[in-house]
Amino acid sequence: MTATYQTRTRMVMENLRARILSGELPAGAPLRQDALARELRVSRIPVREALMQLEAQGLVKFTAHRGAVVTELESSTIDELFYLRGLLEADTLFHAVDLMTEATFAEAEAILAEFDQALESGTQVERWAELNHRFHATLYRAAGRPQALELIAQINLSCDRYVRFELLFAHDGVEKAEREHAHLLALCRQRRKHEAVVLLQRHIADAAHSVKQILQSGK
User: Fold this and answer.
1) Of 75, 94, 118, 125, most Cβ neighbours within 10 A?
2) Considering only 33-47, 180-194, 204-218, which range has the smallest mean pLDDT?
3) Judging by beta carbons within 10 Å of its beta carbon (0-12, 13-18, 19+), is residue 164 exposed, middle or buried?
């Protein structure tokens, strides 16, 4: 693929991803390649490439009779994705705690301060989700395990839609996440890695449970 197509593909992918995550393109919505190409003023090639990337992230699926559609929010997918998150992230955090430095803690605290400001200003959920990912990634980076970090990033791309859903609709969702982040950072500072891992696993499991409850309530 040429650099021009790569740039166009990225533009289309980011546009569609943002619209899916915001709910502008709801579950089950058809994604017509010709219509999208006209709307975004590109050829069909970058549109198809973008849809294939979104399929790899779990946001789009191709069907025999309807073409590309936005994937449904499904309980079985939530169970699998958040189970994998719990396994990988807990193990990575366990290996990271003893290697964390004051720079790690300072960066994590700065992100929590941004979280406070975003909460007070009523910033959109996209900002909350971004800060959530940055906070966790900052803690895990200390482990020095690039392959694990890459896998975590890939799984989080697929989880992003569910995380935003939980932050947006769960009662006390953002405030609860903020409290647990602060507690997690405190445990890491104290090198209490076993307790930190338990808290992280509960944090992830609770998020999965919350999303499933919201789906069942028909939000």
Assistant:
1) 125
2) 204-218
3) buried
pLDDT at 3: 56
* Structural domain contains residue 3: no
CATH of the domain at 96: 1.20.120.530
Tokens of 47: 């549109």
Q: How many CB atoms lie within 10 A of CB 22?
A: 14
Pairwise CA distance, residues 107 & 135, whole Å: 8
- The number of domains in the chain is 2
Greatest mean pLDDT range, 3-17, 46-60, 124-138, 141-155: 141-155
Same domain, 50 and 109: no
Q: Cα–Cα distance between 21 and 163 in angstroms, integer? A: 10
> 91 and 53 share a domain?
no
Please indicate, yes or no, whether residues 65 and 112 belong to a single structural domain of this protein.
Answer: no
Tell me the pLDDT band of 28, cut-offs 50, 70 and 90: confident
Q: Pick from 40, 70, 100: which residue ends a domain?
A: 70
> Would the pLDDT of 124 be above 80?
no
Q: Which domain holds residue 61?
A: 8-70
For residue 29, count other CB atoms closer than 10 A to its CB.
14
Compute the distance between CA of residue 123 and CA of residue 127 in angstroms, rounded to an integer: 6
